[in-house]
Cytochrome c-type biogenesis protein
Amino acid sequence: MRALWTRLALVLALALAPLTPALAVQPDEVLQDAGLESRARQISQQLRCPVCQGENIDESNAPISRDLRLFVRERLVAGDSNDEVIDNVVDRFGEFVLFDPRATGSNLILWMAGPLMAVLAALAAARFLRARNRPTPEVAALDPAEAKRLDEIMRGN
């Protein structure tokens, strides 16, 4: 019975393994200081892999991600703050490596585009609804001469 439970646990673990996040951090990269390692992991999850683009450097197996993880840890050991480390990586690779780009400079246009478009859409919708609900002007009935002429046109005379 115990062997059955062991096999069941193994099958369940293997079945659920693809659902767990794949962390690419190698054992030789891990810092001895748990506090610094925690900060390094936090920073690594904010930085995009320049090659993979859809993964952060903490999860990417690309060689450049490994180099960036090591660089982050070097800077933390040297005494840099989290912001200083991120600024240093951004200086080398540009703001592209940030999963959450800063709302400054040319990025401000991108940050403001969404809310601006929402306001413009709301204004256009309000204008449309106001115009749709406006009463139509009364149309005067045709006088007898106009009715006779219309009748002639419709009959083809």
In short: The longest helix spans residues 107-132. The mean pLDDT is 82. The CA atoms of residues 46 and 100 lie 7 Å apart.
